[in-house]
Amino acid sequence: WCILSLQLVELLLSSSVHLLYGLYIFGTAVAGDISQSLSDWFFKPNLAVVESRNSTGVDDLIPIVLVHGIFGFGKGRLGGLSYFAGAEKKDDRVLVPDLGSLTSIYDRARELFFYLKGGQVDYGEEHSQACGHSQLGRVYEQGHYPEWDEHHPIHFVGHSAGAQVVRLLHQMLADKANLAFEGYERTSPDWILSVTSLSGAFNGTTRTYLDGMQADDGKSLKPVSLLQLCRIGVILYDWLDIPWLKSYYNFGFDHFGMSWKRIGIGGLVGCLAGRGGDPFSSGDWILPDLTIQGSIELNAGIGTFPDTYYFSYATKRTRDVGGTAVPYGLLGVHPLLFVRVLQMSRWRHPPDVAPPYEGYRDEDWWDNDGALNTISMTHPRLPAEHPSHFVVKESECRPMQPGIWYYKILEGDHIMFIVNRERAGVQFDLIYDSIFDRCRKHAFRKKTTPPPTIPN
């Protein structure tokens, strides 16, 4: 009873902190929009003044696409709030797609393709039937980079689960045996010039088990857990289907059709009871992809390509004290993540459950940033080790070689470099300046002339 009581207290604390932080972000976005509207009303901008810019130079630049992670959002959601804390303003040609915040890695990879090329999102007939949702989704009347092909490649930067989305999309482009995108027969891995990961979720995280995923299969949920509360909240949110609210924030499950207009009260009861019709019953959502087992299954079909440049920033908010990982100071960890940093640094795999892979050791997974384990963020390791090189100073890896995961370990928690720019301080500018500089000056195909650098 004592252990159960402590678990319930921890669940109450975690759910309250996550809910309050979510409301804070939402409130900040609404307040920002109201402030901007009032400012425009009282101080109408002079539309006659048009900022001049070198449009030719900008059009010649290869786009850099920033892909958000779990619970993230792209441009156009949450008002004027930026998931990447305004980093997109550092370069003249940056795209920030709005993908499903809780949809599976597979679904998000499909959405990202059509966001760039244009058209209606097609999740694939076989996948859609297996997961019980509509095959077709959102329509992009005009793609954000319709000329995208091997002669017009793209730089991708993915945060957290966004890095895996990019990797799976890369594999889809390379897969000739099973044509991924109907109507696009000539896709190839050369469509992607570079992949940069910022706290990327390559090999799963032990946090998924702390939040409520079952350690034995990595797919089902514990009856009482933070993720169960999340599941209920998401189903109710989509069922209520309030247009202005979903225009501000959308979990991305519209293709499941859980609106009250479609399924009524009976359908809601069925979804809440887990009888089907929702992503949680079919497993077609992002958390199973973030377990160690789910990541191993996903990675088994994704390669590292010889003509693509790779760089990874892994984050860590723990330090070694006598062979044990401990949180690195109270003030250095966001309140949203502090309890999880402590729990993940004490993680023990359940003794009655088989380890997720041969050679597994708990201590390898202790260093973490509150959401992901540091070992998971450096480069793809499971089920097979991909070519990698540890970097202390970035000048060491210049000139860069394609086909190798260069990785660097930073002191910071999982949300240090997103949403709130002030938290990271000067390190924010150093990281993103380095990312954009690498894309513009150090990652290009040698068989073609280097792309022009960013206009001054």
Automatic annotation (TrEMBL):
<keyword id="KW-0443">Lipid metabolism</keyword>
<dbReference type="Pfam" id="PF24708">
    <property type="entry name" value="Lip_C"/>
</dbReference>
<keyword id="KW-0964">Secreted</keyword>
<protein>
    <recommendedName>
        <fullName>Lipase-like C-terminal domain-containing protein</fullName>
    </recommendedName>
</protein>
<feature type="domain" description="Lipase-like C-terminal">
    <location>
        <begin position="63"/>
        <end position="175"/>
    </location>
</feature>
<dbReference type="InterPro" id="IPR056304">
    <property type="entry name" value="Lip-like_C"/>
</dbReference>
<keyword id="KW-0732">Signal</keyword>
<dbReference type="GO" id="GO:0016787">
    <property type="term" value="F:hydrolase activity"/>
</dbReference>
<dbReference type="InterPro" id="IPR029058">
    <property type="entry name" value="AB_hydrolase_fold"/>
</dbReference>
<dbReference type="GO" id="GO:0005576">
    <property type="term" value="C:extracellular region"/>
</dbReference>
<keyword id="KW-0378">Hydrolase</keyword>
<dbReference type="GO" id="GO:0006629">
    <property type="term" value="P:lipid metabolic process"/>
</dbReference>
